[in-house]
Every structure is written in structure tokens, then in C-alpha cells.
Amino acid sequence: MDGEKIVQHNDYMKQLVRKIRNTAKQLLMDFGLSSDEANSYLIQVEMKISYVTGRDIKFLPGVVRWSLSHFDIHNKSECDRIQKLLYNLRDMPIRDDYDGNFNGQSPEEVIKNARLDIDAEEYHTPADVSYSVVPGTLSNLSKYEGHCDWCILDEAIFDFYGDLSARQNHLPSIRA
After folding, report:
1. Which of 8, 44, 118, 162 is the most buried (most CB within 10 A)?
2. Measuring CA to CA, how many Å separate 130 from each of 121, 126, 127, 133?
3. Tell me: the pLDDT tens digits for 72-91?
4. Secondary structure class of 83 (helix, strand, coil)
């Protein structure tokens, strides 16, 4: 992929992620959170349900909706169950039948429709990982393309996510 196409793709992905996050944020604001509280809550969801930050980001609004009524974001085993559901849906054809809100279905309905036995499915919680900051230009960073699911190429976004660990103890807790 040449530099211009990478820039176009990166711009498109930033717009798409922004749109998805804004949809999830609006759901939280409709629930009664302020804009800042909604942003903090989204960070909390992204930290605890890590699959909604990568390839499955389209499901962020649905997972946020579930966290308000179907599972407790502060309960590790319930978060692991949602992680396991997303993990098992990744390579199933039915995944493409769902919109970002899981077509309005609950986690249990998605499990039933996907014919998953969540308790029997193999799954290992993602290990703690470390990340490296590799400064460079778009042209020399393309060599890392096959080694990761995502890459932050925007300084403002890096600053936002780089500050997460400092803010994670100050996130709001909400539950319907």
C-alpha cells in the first residue's frame, strides 16, 4: 500500500471510529451521563472489554447498551463472558448479520442465535501485553502492518490513549 492510500485509509478509519464512539457516547448521554462522564465510561468499557477496541469496534454501541442493562462492567466474570462471546463470534458467519447494536438483542439472545455454548467454548483471557512506541513516518511504519491489529498514527489519539492508565481510577460507575 503506498503512502497516499495509507493516509486515506487512516483518515477513513479515524472517521469511522469517531462515528462509532459518538454513537456509543450518545447512548450514554441519553442514559443521563454528561459528556465527560460518557467519555470516561467509554474508556472503562474499552479497557474491560478489549475486543471492542480492535476489529470488533463496530460492536461498541451494543456492548455499551449491554453494560447498562445486561451485565455489570465492574464484575470481571461478567466482562470475561462478554469478551468470550465476542471472541467466539469473530470467525462465525453470523457475526456479519449483526449491526453495531447486535440488532437490539441481549447477550443471551446472541449466544442462542449463534448456537454457542459459552461455558463449553475454549477461551483464554487476553494476557497483559506491553506496547512499544515506534516513531517514524507512514512509509517506514508499514513494515509493522502484519504484526499488530491496530496502530496509532495520530499524536492526539496517542496522547488520549497514553493517558488512560492515569485516568482509569477516576472513571464513573453507572448501572441501571
Report:
1. 44
2. 27, 12, 10, 10
3. 999 998 999 999 999 889 88
4. helix
Q: Summarize pLDDT for 11-35 with one digit per residue, the tens.
A: 777 888 889 999 999 999 999 999 9
Residue with cell 472517521: 15
Q: What angle do CA 70, 163, 170 make, to 5 degrees?
A: 50
Backbone angles phi, psi at 169, to 5 degrees: -85, 0
Looking at residue 114, its amino acid is: A
Domain boundaries, the chain: 8-122+151-170
Q: Give pTM, 2 decimals.
A: 0.68
Q: How far apart are CA 156 and CA 142, in angstroms?
A: 20
DSSP 3-state assignment of 156? helix
